[in-house]
Design a protein that fits this description.
- This protein is mainly beta.
- It has a domain of 67 residues: DNA polymerase, domain 1 (Orthogonal Bundle), CATH 1.10.150.
- 12% of the residues lie in helices and 48% in strands.
- It contains nine helices and 33 strands.
- A hairpin with a 3-residue loop joins strand 29 and strand 30.
- It is globular, with a radius of gyration of 26 Å.
- It starts with a helix and ends with a strand.
Length: 696
């Protein structure tokens, strides 16, 4: 390990010699890392990545932007979005991005962050949708992706004799991952998408996957046609208000972080997510007449689950013990859980909004959702989960409000579940000065509140059994100095997993950002979380004693662009955890990124070299890695070793984009990587991804 460290030592010198930079508040990548660390189960970030990639590929033209278009621009608070929309309405066509600096509340840091997602261009006249124009002005994207991990894991290294004796002890398919997606776009009126994926270990046009890919998704979407805001047939996601009654899919800002939150309303959006558990498939539509907007949807599809009992007389599933959201259908055991029940979800939203004056606006909405399953959910009951959802049907109804006065924005939502239990939250975005923004949120989710489709702000993966007060602040202290911070104080009125009594905790952090040179960026981040959990003891103990558990994280980032074609990013991060009075060794991560764009060739090279020394799972560090278009990778680093990855991107002609990504992870002192059928012999792990996109 010393030899590896010595090889990397020049990068350490570069990192500390570059202390003449600038730092900006938390970006999307940082927020995804934080979300991956806080959620209690694996989440799919493909919707977030897809939205940002689509938005950067087809940014919002401010000269024809509606209020809904502006709400899609990331990094803006509700007050900033309203100020931007009012400026466009008041002054008409914009001619330069520098005009944004004259809008109250839009500082240079914010403008820099939103720049990839906006353009200022003349308004195009949309032709009539004749068959000829649909062909002539339509844009087609076809993406093909291949990925594989080397060497092969134990699930692919089984002898034929063992396969016959133990059919569930191996993966019948190959180790390759295949993915494709096709999209057709005609201005902002028509969008068609279709995608499919084969996971490693699943068969391809054979066995349980006789139709090729294991999972397919698709949609037809019509938008902004008269009073019809949108119509989606196929896969979609829906979210209203603050997501407390309905918030499908993971959204940035639903967990405590440095990003100002409080404007989660997204409505209905088509989706090509590969999340095979939590998704909607059916039909959804939204119409708007003057100040009234009305939406409705229905979704029906099979779901994976663990069968608890089977009705042999009716040949149907009697009860299920849990839903399965992994999407893996490799072994006979996994295939037996595929599509064992059906899920029917329907609901809608009606809202009224008005801005009688430029400095005054409000919105009021009612959301309802109902779900039914072909077999009841009957999990094993423990003290901590006895108030969770059981049965085959549930419904929720909620009311959300939004109110804006000048530079102050207030929001809230209250929701009721089928068992008459309540949950609510209220908050405000305040802009007392154009250089300062503050968000305050209070939430109160009763332990008995039941909702499988909520995604409101909070610490838990489900919005139940939680009360808390959160405050966040972003301030431009100087033209070159920005400070962001937050605090979250929370209590859990009832038991949780690994806590045998009600508990409380705190979480807080801050980012100091500095700009000294135009082409150098720098920031320092500190984050701490204090909670209580059971002491490790005899598993037969009924009620465990609680102990304090602390997590502290220190991070230093630098971005340096020495020339226009070269971008360097450096990060050094330390993380420590402590249980009770004991203290574990501090985890350590250091990486260097380099992105090179060649002038003479259409080639971009992105590289990362990382060193890590992290003592255990509790101290793991999540890192967002360079990836191919529409791909994402947020691995958790644990143990001691080195990581290298590289992405090559080239453009061939006007139609072809090619990506090639390779990765290598070396672990010091290990004889194997992973467990079970995914165990790889040795201490080296390699990945290879190839991707082709054809754009017409």
């Amino acid at each position: 390990m010393k030899g590896i460290f010595n090889l990397f030592f020049p990068w350490i010198i570069l990192l500390f010699l570059s202390l003449t930079g600038f730092g900006q508040t938390e970006n999307i990548e940082d927020a995804i890392e934080k979300s991956a660390e806080l959620v209690e189960s694996d989440h799919d970030f493909s919707n977030i990545i897809e939205d940002l990639n689509d938005l950067s590929k087809k940014p919002v033209n401010l000269n024809k932007a509606t209020e809904e278009n502006i709400s899609e621009i990331p990094f803006l608070s509700p007050v900033q979005r309203k100020a931007l929309f009012e400026y466009i309405q008041s002054y008409g066509e914009m001619f330069s991005i520098y005009e944004l600096a004259t809008i109250p509340g839009l500082d240079s840091n914010t403008i820099l962050k939103i720049q990839p997602y906006i353009i200022i261009a003349p308004v195009q006249k949309i032709p009539s949708p004749t068959p000829g124009n649909l062909v002539r002005f339509g844009h087609h994207d076809l993406l093909l992706r291949y990925g594989q991990i080397f060497p092969k894991s134990e699930g692919y290294r089984v002898d034929d004799s063992i396969k016959t004796e133990k059919p569930g002890s191996f993966y019948p398919g190959g180790p390759q991952r295949y993915y494709f997606r096709y999209t057709y776009l005609w201005f902002d009126k028509i969008k068609i998408g279709f995608a499919g994926e084969k996971d490693p270990g699943e068969q391809f046009f054979a066995g349980a996957q006789s139709s090729g890919m294991d999972f397919y998704t698709g949609y037809l979407s019509l938008n902004n046609i008269g009073i019809l805001r949108n119509l989606v047939i196929g896969n979609f996601r829906a979210s209203y208000g603050q997501g407390l009654t309905l918030g499908s899919g993971l959204s940035i800002g639903s967990m405590p972080s440095f990003m100002l939150t409080g404007n989660q309303t997204r409505g209905i959006k088509p989706s090509l997510s590969m999340n095979e558990g939590n998704y909607f498939r059916g039909a959804a539509a939204t119409i708007k007449i003057n100040h009234v907007e009305c939406s409705g949807f229905i979704s029906y599809h099979p779901r994976d689950a663990t069968v608890a009992s089977f009705d042999s007389l009716e040949s149907t599933v009697g009860e299920i013990s849990s839903f399965i959201n992994t999407g893996y259908h490799r072994t006979a055991t996994e295939q037996a859980k595929k599509n064992v029940i059906t899920e029917l979800v329907y609901g809608g939203n009606i809202s009224f909004s008005m801005s009688p004056r430029a400095n005054l606006g409000f919105k009021f909405g009612i959301t309802g959702i109902s779900c039914r399953y072909s077999a009841p959910l009957a999990p094993t009951i423990h003290p901590y989960n006895q108030f969770g959802f059981c049965g085959d049907r549930n419904s929720n109804v909620g009311i959300d409000v939004q109110f804006r006065y000048r530079y102050y924005y207030f929001f809230g939502e209250i929701s009721r579940s089928n068992n008459s239990e309540m949950a609510w939250l209220a908050g405000a975005n305040l802009t007392p000065d154009p250089r300062m923004g503050v968000t305050i949120i209070y939430r109160n989710y009763e332990p008995r509140y039941q909702n499988l489709f909520s995604n409101a702000f909070g610490q838990n993966s489900l919005n139940a059994n939680e009360r808390g007060f959160y405050i966040a602040m972003n301030a431009v202290l100087h033209s070159r100095v920005t400070l962001s911070g937050y605090m979250d104080f929370f209590t859990f009125p009832w038991l949780r997993y690994r806590t045998d009594t009600p508990t409380r905790g705190q979480e807080y952090g801050f980012i100091i950002a500095l700009q000294v040179a135009k082409n150098v960026l720098m920031n320092f981040r500190y984050y701490q979380k204090n909670i209580k959990r059971n002491q490790t003891a005899d598993p037969d103990t009924v009620v465990h004693k609680l102990t304090d558990y602390f997590t502290k994280d220190y991070r230093f980032n630098i971005e340096w662009e020495p020339v226009q074609q070269v971008l360097l990013k450096s990060r050094i991060e330390f993380k420590e955890t402590r249980e009770g009075t004991g203290k574990k060794p501090m985890g350590f991560l250091l990486y260097q990124d380099a992105r090179l764009k060649f002038r003479k060739w259409p080639l971009t090279v992105t590289m990362r070299y990382a060193l890590f020394d992290i003592p255990d799972y509790d101290s793991r560090i999540y890192v967002y890695e360079p990836e191919v278009l529409y791909g994402y990778s947020v691995p958790s680093y644990e143990g001691k070793g080195m990581r290298f990855c590289m992405v090559l991107h080239t453009v061939i002609g006007h139609c072809f984009n090619v990506w090639l990504r390779g990765g290598w992870t070396y672990y010091n002192g290990r004889n194997s990587i992973g467990t079970g059928l995914d165990q790889i012999p040795g201490n080296n792990r390699y990945e290879l991804t190839g991707q082709l996109m054809v754009r017409l």
